[in-house]
Amino acid sequence: MTDTPVSIVALDDQAISRAQALADRLGLELSSMQADTSQLWLGDHTLALKVPEFKQAFSINFSSGKYDHRRKFGGGRGQPLARAVGLKQGQTPSVIDATAGFARDAFVLASLGCEVTMIEQNKIMSLLIEDGLLRAAYDSAIAEIAARMKLYQGNAIALLAEGKLQADVIYLDPMYPGRDKSALVKKEMQLLHQLVGADIDSGELLAIAREKAGKRVVVKRPKGAEFVGEQKPAASVQSKNTRFDIYPTR
Q1: In whole angstroms, how large is the CA radius of gyration of the chain?
Q2: What span, in angstroms and rounded, lies between the C-alpha atoms of 22 and 28?
């Protein structure tokens, strides 16, 4: 899939002005719904991505679904992700999530008190996150959490190399190349694969992250997957299906 859909659809009259502004921002045209093309659907209260391969349009809503479930029942500071980044009594590290994706892990870390800076290279994923944050700011249950999340759209290697973004921990969740479109792969991950494409620079990203992180770099991997860039971590935190590899800074 290209970095942007081919058109934008206003779902109701109230969304027309916002849809036109977004179209101008992206250099796209407003359109009616078309089943055979990728489109951004803009309603009065939400932005969603609709692609032909899936019946459901995708949006990011931090107040419901998996986001809400993980916030309430994910295990708090005792869950593997929290332990990997170094969350413990008296210690709440700041985090750069350099591969934000659907921003689920970023939201979990922010809900546990971390200041989280997200980097997302894909423009469409970045827009979906941005829309989710805007709506979260008006939800009293999660507004405080959303306020701890900042978003940058761009290449993570370049942004980290500039040195302007700083944090105790840099968190990476590079795209795992072994996944395909089988029924075992969740639809969200299939969509993410289509949007961001193959991961070809995770080794370089890990290298620059180890130079720039204040305390450590954490890399999320499927259980049993090879180490990123063939770099062996100093330690790992295991969960049922996932491994969090921990690297010291250089």
Answers
A1: 18
A2: 8
Domain extents for the chain?
7-50, 65-248
pLDDT tens figures, 181-235:
444 346 666 666 666 655 668 999 999 999 999 999 999 999 999 999 889 999 9
Residue closest to 49 by CA, chosen among 68, 70, 22: 22
Torsion of CA 225, 231, 234, 239, to 10 degrees: -10
Partners of 37 in beta bridges: none
Residue type, 106: A
**102, 111 Cβ separation under 8 angstroms:** no
11-41: b (≥16 Cβ within 10 Å) or e:
beeebeeebeebbeebebeebeeeeeebbbb
CATH topology of domain 7-50: S-adenosyl-L-methionine-dependent methyltransferases (3.40.1630)
113-137 mean pLDDT: 95
Q: What is the mean pLDDT of residues 123-145?
A: 95
* 8 Å CB contact between 215 and 163: no
Separation of alpha carbons 92 and 107, rounded Å: 14
- Architecture category of domain 65-248 in CATH: 3-Layer(aba) Sandwich (3.40)
Q: Mind listing the pLDDT tens digit for each residue in 97-113? A: 999 999 999 999 999 99
